[in-house]
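Recap for those who missed Tuesday's class. We walked through two folding examples back to back. For each one, the amino acid string is listed first and its predicted structure tokens come directly after. Nothing is annotated here on purpose, so try labeling regions yourself before you check the end of the notes.
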Amino acid sequence: MNQGWTYHNRVDSTTAGLTLLAFYSKRYPHSSRQEWQERIESGQVRLEGKQTDPEVVLANGQTLSYHRPPWKEPDVPLSFDVLHEDAEILVVSKPSGLPVLPGGGFLEHTLLHQVKIRFPSHTPRPIHRLGRGTSGVMLMAKSRQARAHLSQQMRKRHIQKRYRALIGADPVDQPLAEHFDINQAIGKVPYPGWGEVYAANDSGRASHSVCKVLQRRSDSTLLSVLITTGRPHQIRIHLASIGYPLLGDPLYGVGGQPKPVPQAQSRPVPGDCGYFLHAHSLQFIHPQTNQKMQFISPPPPQLSLL
């Protein structure tokens, strides 16, 4: 069991006028209206620090809090390898299955929490994220100055991120080109039970991936993918958008949209694992020395050259 967690929200002009129950039911549809009503009535949800009625009408600027009692988190791999550490940065190799940040039922079973345990005096903060099911190299900053410097590099696209990805086998009559770019825009789309998820969306933000075929196999194709933009789930969405979803991806199907799910089955969510994606290399400028640095995380067997 973890220690539980308190989630905070502030009412703004878009949510003022809603009842407390409507606010939580709409903002967090992963729980039913009845579940939110029970939480409010039991005092787990508070308005301005006080217990109140589910039907109270909210006003702009009010503060809300929901205290989630301790819960047992799913078992995940908690170990990680340190690739480099100095006074300013930490570079680690994250295993598949370990979330980077709290969310979706995870609080202490996250990379951030495990890093806090290992480096309690100066907890490094992630400069970028990897999906829960994605393994590989991650960059973290130990100081505010390093974080600001590296974040600026990220915004200016000076940090180079290269991945290994496994897709299905090529059709013999229409094989993939050795090199190809994907420029499908990515944005949010409605997703029942979850609210919204990122997917291929022509009204979304511009996105760019540069792909190279590393190895063609009888049952799969191994790719190297360089992303020049960092949209959520970009590689998964991009490859699915051209008809090549990552092997084992439970969420994204051909077209870069969430797969249709029979009503009797539970819907997959973005944090579900099973796909084959690995952050293989990361290149950046050290925030203190201005030295160009590159780190490589050895890929798992399925994503290694045979």
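Example two. Treat it independently of the first, because the proteins are unrelated.
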Amino acid sequence: MPLSSPDVIEPVPSSGRLARIFFMHIGSFVAVIVYFQLCERAAYTPAGVRFALLVGLTLMSGYSVLAHRCRELKQFDFGLLAMFVLGTLGVYAGMDSVLFLFQHYSATILFVTLGLVALIPLLLGRETFTYYFARRQTPPWQQKLSEFSAINQLMTGYWALLFLIAAGLAIYSPYDWRFTVLYPNLLIFVVGIPASLWLPPLYLKLFPPGLPQTIEPLLMGMPFTFDRKAAGDTQATLQFRVSGTEAGNYYLRVAGGKCESFAGTAPAPDLTLHTPDTVWLRIARGELDGAQAFQEGLYRVEGDFSLLTKLAEWFPPRR
């Protein structure tokens, strides 16, 4: 899927928490870990490397079949499978150069493979490996925003750089475990993984997102503009019943100085707003005065009318 199509949301398979952790973070690298363990035990002898590659290919193939059946197959899996296929075919075909590379530069080959998996789709303008992880950690409405694609491209470039740095360390000193294992893993676990916590917020701070152009992200994103001081200790549930081409039901729960957004219908809302999608979008953009639109009957409310007057205070307009 091209990166320029954020409106297309692929369904994320429903699976248990442990299964999700396995497929996201562990399964792909079982074959890699076993391969390196077997190579170490055999002291990277030609026979040992051949056997390790064959075992690695078998395990990676089995995992790939399982991941495919569970709809959890990702780009890393294709890359690692290709690495084992090419390596196994090369060494069993008697290609001494391939055997030499896997004997002396296995760590480099691994990190180059990961770097290429990240870099090639990015350069081709295709969906990158980070989408697999991002879809499982962000709500669907956020995936419809253009910032979702931009942040994925940024994260992919960041990871590609780390993988290639790790490959450089491994090729610099291929027989020193610090350069093939310690430093690369420090890059991955200390520099790489925590980046998902600080890099997207930094991007959004440097490049503030504009007002959403569709109603769902506009309403679901209202907690991001929530002024907790203005709300104080107020507790209220605000229901939006949206009609029009983007019809839907959404509600906000304000309590304890916090605001949460949900898709669906609240059991007992304090205020219900019935509005066409285009009307509320125009109000949010400042193209239409909310009070005037209400007086003209462009939308209607039920419940505690005083909460309607608080909306502008609790959710300051953004541009």
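Answers for example two:
The radius of gyration is 26 Å.
Strands lie at 236-243, 248-255, 258-263, 271-276, 300-303.
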